[in-house]
Write a structure and sequence with these properties.
Two copies of one chain form a homodimer.
Chain A: H1 22-26, H2 34-64, H3 76-121, E1 129-133, E2 138-145, H4 155-164, E3 167-176, E4 182-190, H5 196-207
Chain B binds a DNA duplex (16 and 16 nucleotides) through helix 1 and helix 2.
Chain lengths: 210, 210
DNA sequence: GCACACACGTGTACAG
DNA sequence: CTGTACACGTGTGTGC
């Protein structure tokens, strides 16, 4: 029979079988120092309770550990061994997850920052050059030149170099704003084999000095 | 003196003090059944080693647990108690981190998806309406109308409703592409108290039916 | 004094 | 049979 102390409700053990106390029986005197026997009995009971508590702790610990496939109840030593393997596993998991989370947070942050920068750039004053592709071969190019700069640079050269890259100027219009800035709207015909993305890069690079 | 068995190298205990074996001494016969004594001695040594191993396990477990400020060595029962509190903490941490990581991953994924959708949309054919803010009060609005649609909708109404929202048409130009699409470029003067973002929303909504 | 913790020897039960 | 695990009683040390 297994002593399933772990299921007991941890009441202090009241009943003590006197037969199981060899030294108490071997002591011939009975009525003399009853207090000594009392003490011994109490000590035994206390030790019993202590063991009971420890077993209960073992039982609780067993419940926390990852379930084993074995139907047999784990022994107390192997319970500690198991906990000894399990705890570092958990700590490692925590460490790994923390690192991963950290990485994700920074990634998300710089993603957001990029987004914010892009969004902050879009609304105004950044649209020195905007390209809108209307089809695979048509692009609407919109250029804004600040008052200070548009007199310094030969704008016709830009148009010419665009033609060098396979872009033909189909239609164009321009007007001047109240503060003197110039706006051009150019409808460009591109060669079919020119990738829009690459072209946008080219345009950005070409118009960067503006 | 504390018995620091946990520091010993776990060698099986060889030397046994015979004086500490009461039952062996009380057995009068010596040369009779030496095998019984041998057995008892072995049993005792085995039990001793077992306890030693258990203590070593306790020692290792103590090292894994979060350090306590107390200088005193933890007792074995309190070691299990501590582990009993510590393991759920770790499990909870793992669970929390896993959930957080999961959330971050999905967030990052949909962020990327949004980004991809946006990038896929930008290059061509999406620019039915583009707003470029040149200053806090000036915006360059560029509208492309497909051949099929631009005859069905009263474009002047759009301009009028823009004025209702506090946008004044400063300058405008338009031209027709080779395939019959119409392009408008409008320079708008906005009231200062109109937030660009909100306005962009308005424009998007207004021009959506196109 | 008392509660607690620890180590020990011992008997018993169970699995290889 | 041997090793392992467990519970028990007991002696001892330690801190409140």
């Amino acid at each position: 029979m297994e002593p399933f102390y772990q299921f007991s409700s941890l009441q202090p053990s009241q009943q003590v079988k006197l037969e199981s106390c060899p030294t108490l029986l071997s002591a011939g005197v009975v009525g003399d120092d009853i207090t000594a026997m009392d003490k011994k009995l109490k000590h035994n009971a206390n030790e019993r309770d202590r063991r009971r508590k420890i077993n209960s702790l073992y039982y609780s610990l067993r419940c926390l550990l990852p379930p084993t496939d074995s139907m047999k109840r784990m022994s107390n030593p192997s319970t500690i061994s198991k906990a000894l393997k399990y705890i570092p596993e958990l700590q490692q998991q925590v460490e790994g997850l923390r690192r991963r989370k950290e990485g994700l947070v920074t990634k998300l942050n710089e993603e957001n920052l990029k987004q914010i920068r892009k969004n902050n750039k879009e609304p105004w004053m950044s649209s020195l050059c905007a390209v809108n592709w209307l089809s695979e071969t048509e692009a609407l190019l919109q250029i804004a030149l600040e008052e200070q700069t548009h007199t310094q640079l030969p704008f016709s050269q830009i148009l010419l170099s665009l033609e060098d890259d396979g872009l033909l100027l189909s239609t164009a219009s321009s007007f001047r704003s109240s503060n003197g800035s110039l706006f051009f709207t150019l409808l460009l015909q591109a060669k079919a084999n020119i990738l829009p993305r690459v072209l946008q890069e080219i345009l950005n690079k070409k118009l960067k000095p503006l």
